[in-house]
Amino acid sequence: MMKDNNPSWKPTFIVKPDGGCQGDGIYLIKDPSDIRLTGSIQSRPAVVQEYICKPLLVDKLKFDIRLYVLLKSLEPLEIYIAKDGLSRFCTEPYQEPTLKNLHQVFMHLTNYSLNIHSGNFIHSDSVNTGSKRTFSSILCRLSSRGADVKKLWSDIISLVIKTIIALTPELKVYYQSDIPAGKPGPTCFQILGFDILLMKNLKPVLLEVNANPSMRIEHEQEVRVVSVILE
User: Which InterPro entries does the entry mention (predicted)?
Assistant: First the structure.
């Protein structure tokens, strides 16, 4: 409908199968009619998003950010955000999507589980280099170029808070169904993985929230957290 109303609008879409993980089954399309249906849409639903074609690049590579967020309490709403995260890089120099390169997953998809199989994947013991780096190393690099990293971090915190607020009503329903009001229950928490992409203008864009993010450790480094309590 949007395309009919605006013929000049020529987006690329990214299709993610429901219940998928580690980049499995993700692909790009130019036309909605190109969606590959395996079985019925009821048995294999998918999330379709407009693909962000102009991301911030580092070393000519696309990357995204994984931040870990601890949801400690719903009432009051209490959130802890790790002060550092991961930057996961593609392994092929980025080009805006065309019909000729839509299939090049190492160029468009940042998933670590995919890119580790690329011949260009760089393993590094340094947090500042390689195909998987700390987010703080990216912030240092941006700061050296004159970017306002304090504003960027503030925008990311705002994004996380607004997303959690949007999720809270549904989370309360699940919580209260397991632990009815007025009855003593266990103290529980949840760790969420926020996947964020930076635009060229340093605007953070939420890609998705992982309810069961990977906790695999390759490097140990103590980090601080930001506490957010909303009354």
Answer: TTL/TTLL_fam
Whether residues 161 and 172 fall in one domain: yes
Is the confidence at residue 109, as pLDDT, over 60?
yes
Q: Which string of DSSP letters, residue by residue, matches the chain?
A: -HHHH-TT----EEEEETT--TTTT-EEESSGGG---SS-TTTS-EEEEE---SB-EETTEEEEEEEEEEEEEETTEEEEEES--EEEE-SS------TTTTT-HHHH---HHHHTTSTT----SSTTSSSEEEHHHHHHHHHHTT--HHHHHHHHHHHHHHHHHHHHHHHHHHHHHHS-TTS------EEEEEEEEEBTT--EEEEEEESS-----SS-----EEEEEE-
- Please tell me the total count of domains within the chain: 2
pTM recorded for the entire structure: 0.83
Check residue 137 and give its pLDDT: 93
Other C-beta atoms lying within 10 Å of the C-beta of residue 106: 21
Q: Quick: pLDDT tens for 51-103.
A: 898 999 999 999 999 999 999 888 888 999 998 999 999 999 999 998 899 88
Report pLDDT digits (tens) over 191-231: 999 999 999 999 999 998 988 887 765 555 556 666 665 55
Residue 46, domain extent: 9-51
